[in-house]
Design goal:
This protein is an alpha+beta fold and about 270 residues long. It has one domain (about 1-55, about 120-260). Helices cover about 30% and strands about 25% of the residues. The protein contains six helices and 18 strands. The strands form seven sheets. Strands 1, 8, 9, 10, 11 and 16 form a six-stranded mixed β-sheet that branches. Strands 2-5 form a two-stranded antiparallel sheet. Strands 3-4 form a two-stranded antiparallel sheet. The longest helix is centred in the C-terminal third of the chain and has 21 residues, at about 175-195.
Length: about 270
């Protein structure tokens, strides 16, 4: 992580395990992005997804990501060989389990980082960085030009460890359905790169928003779900397409302990 920080190699979208990046910063920036949707009166879409990452991180992918950040091959080999060859027990309040899993008894070595592994967050930070870079390189996400300095800011979304928000907004005049289709592409891309690391999205813990505006006599309001129809789907760990839950623009959902909605509401429904 020291090498990654020094070389500025971590994706700026990843707030987890990243120095000078805190959960409160993510929540604030997410709220500011929602504000810009509203101030610009441009349709926007957000997909907040949860990934099965720690339990499913492939050791080959993790090794390459760690080597890329300067970890020695000896350290990588030592850690993953230990995880693969150790016989694991389950610890409960009644004591350790008598039976074990993993180890030399398994023909296929166990993968994943393991819950409670102290290096787990750092590994996911370096594994998720190329994935977030791919989203950005494919032009998914948000692009803003600061009004004073005229600096162009482009980011794919927000991530805190394996909880990721994919945001999408197109240029002025693009209809809401085009924004939804672009978000669908981003979700498919994200699911695809996650599967390349042996990870997957959990549909039951994933939801999305589509914000659009209805104008009448110079005044506006957010369109309801019935007025702006559309769905987002994603493949689960078994490869089956699942339709994601869609939330209304004023329905606040919990983000890192804070309730936020695109409308600015802080009240959960």
């Amino acid at each position: 992580m020291s090498n990654a920080e020094w070389s500025n190699a971590l994706a700026s979208e990843q707030y987890g395990s990243h120095k000078r990046h805190r959960a409160t910063n993510l929540a604030t920036n997410k709220a500011l992005s929602y504000d810009l949707f509203r101030q610009l009166r441009r349709p926007g879409a957000v997909c907040s997804n949860d990934a099965k990452s720690y339990d499913l991180i492939g050791h080959t992918t993790a090794s390459l990501a760690m080597l890329r950040m300067g970890v020695t091959s000896q350290a990588v080999d030592c850690m993953f060989t230990t995880i693969q060859e150790a016989a694991h027990q389950v610890q409960t309040g009644f004591g350790d389990s008598g039976s074990t899993y993993g180890g030399t008894a398994w023909l296929i070595p166990i993968h994943g980082i393991g819950q409670g592994n102290g290096v787990g967050p750092a590994i996911w930070a370096v594994v998720s960085t190329p994935l977030l870079n791919i989203l950005r390189e494919h032009s998914y996400g948000l692009t803003f030009i600061t009004p004073v300095s005229r600096v162009c800011i482009h980011f794919a979304g927000f991530a805190f460890v394996d909880d990721t928000d994919l945001l999408q907004m197109l240029q002025h005049g693009a209809p809401a359905d085009c924004v939804r289709l672009k978000l669908q592409e981003a979700v498919d891309c994200w699911e695809g790169v996650l599967s390349a690391t042996a990870g997957a999205i959990v549909p039951d813990k994933t939801y999305w928003y589509l914000t659009d505006f209805h104008w009448q006599a110079g005044s506006w309001r957010y369109k309801t779900i019935q007025e702006s129809l559309g769905a987002i789907t994603v493949k689960d760990i078994a490869g089956q397409r699942k339709t994601l839950r869609r939330c209304a623009a004023d329905e606040a959902m919990e983000t890192l302990g804070i309730f936020l909605a695109p409308s600015g509401s802080l009240d959960s429904c």
